[in-house]
Each structure stands twice: as C-alpha cells, then as structure tokens.
Amino acid sequence: VVKYRTNSDGHPVVIEVAKHDLAKVKLKDGQASDVPYPRHDLPYGPAFLGRKHALFLDVIAPASNHVTVGYEQVLGSRISLIVKAGYIGLWSEYMEHNNDMYNSKGGLLTAGLKFKLPRSPKRLTPSRDAHPMAGWYLYPELTFSAWSTTYYTYGGYNPYPPYNNYPQIENTDKYTSAALVLNVGREFFLGEHITFDISGGLGYGGEWRNGEWADSYDYSYDYHAYRQEYAFTHAFFGETSPLVLTGGLRFGYVF
Q1: Is residue 174 a contact partner of residue 129, using CB atoms and an 8 Å limit?
Q2: Cβ count within 10 A of residue 101
C-alpha cells in the first residue's frame, strides 16, 4: 500500500492506494520511481500477445447429454470470432428413455463475435488481461441445434391371453431449434496457454417439431406434440415464452 497526504477543504487527508494499481510514484520534490510488477504478474512478451487462436471445451455440457468444442480466432485488439460445434447423445445408450434430454441424438452449431469490454483507465491492467482474449466481454451469438427423440406405442390392447399380440411400434420426433442470444462473460488466463471462461446470456428463440412450429408444451395424451424446453444450445424460459437462457464454463488452450 502507498499512502500520501493531501488537503480537502482545508483539512489534511490520508489516501491509501494499492501498489498493483500504480505504475509510477512521483514525490513532491520531483523524485520518481517505478512500481515493479509483483512476481505473479510479470509482463508477458510479444509471443504471449501474439497468440491469436484457441480451442476450448465446455465442461458443463456432458452433464446435459452432449459435448461441445469451440474455436476462437482473434480478429483485432478487442474482437474475436467464435465458432462452436457439438454432438448430442453422449449418454443416450446408457440412460432410460423417459427423459427427453437423455433420449435425444443430434448435433449443434453456434457462431458469433466476441467484443472485449474496456477497463477503467484509472486502474492498471494486469499483464495477462492485456491479451485480446482476456477480460470481460459481450458476445452476440446465433445458435442452431437439431436432434431426434424416440418413443414407443402399441397397436392396441388385448385383454385375453396372450397379451402381447400387438407389436411395439417405434416412433421418432425430429426437432430443430434456433436462437439469437446476447452473452456476457469473463475470460481468465491461468498461465500463458490455459484459459478459463464463464458466461451467461439471454435472448429469443424458436423451435420446430417434425417441420411444424412448436410454441408450447401440451399436457394432453400426446405429450410429444409440442416443444422440448431444453434445446442443448439454450433453454426456453417458460412453457410458452420465446425467451431463452444460456450459460457455460469452458477451459481452453491458446496457441
């Protein structure tokens, strides 16, 4: 901590400033000294700042029956292109089919531009945050997912033995969903190559079942007739609302 005295309305005031927020200290007699970086925040060289590519993995996705990998390409000092792709059905062979999330197979694709937010000019930027991928950001994202679910019906009911005269019929519903989402997040560098990213977003989306618009959930006998609320790239906020929510935790490798 650096302390100095000043006056406010004729009264002496002592001000304390953290050393990591200062680049240089200049005394009243003109003497000046630089404030060194702490050992854990040494300046990174041109090789670190010149790394413009990253591959990352969403670590929450496997719990929701899919895997998502992504690629980030730096386009400028505060803008990057992000593309993500994924496979739906990671655990479908091992789970009971009475849950639509685990009774699904398909794929997903998202893309968008990430805009790094500026830091306050009054604060010294940590050297890791000087990288164009690091820091707080806004990320408008277009998402698309397509998957199918399987369920079984029977041709009828025979009350007399044998009871299994009627064959089991396999049925398939095909879903597609799209959304436009605005995400806000924070990306951290855990070294020169490893990153950790956390984000959440809100937007609007829609869904189609077997080529027909699906806008609500039906509690009638044929519950497969309407929307599946979780669409793997986003989740609908309410049974009839077009609002969608997103979120993610990602680890990446920068090169």
Answers
A1: no
A2: 20
- What is the spatial distance between Cα 128 and Cα 49, in angstroms, rounded to a whole number? 9
What is the Cα 46 distance to its own chain's centre? 28
- Chain centroid to Cα 21, Å, comes to 30
Say which residues have a Cβ less than 8 Å from residue 124's Cβ, sequence separation at least 6.
20, 21, 22, 23
pLDDT digits (tens, 9 = 90+) for 148-165: 998 777 666 555 555 555
- For residues 120-154, one letter each, b for 16 or more C-beta atoms within 10 angstroms of the residue's C-beta and e for the rest, the string is eeeebebbbbbbbbbbebbbebebbbbbebeeeee
Residue located via tokens 């790239």: 233
Strands 79-88 and 104-116: antiparallel
CA neighbor of 195 nearest in space, from 114, 125, 113, 133: 133
Predicted TM-score (pTM) of the model is 0.76
Answer whether 184's CB lies under 8 Å from 198's CB.
Answer: no
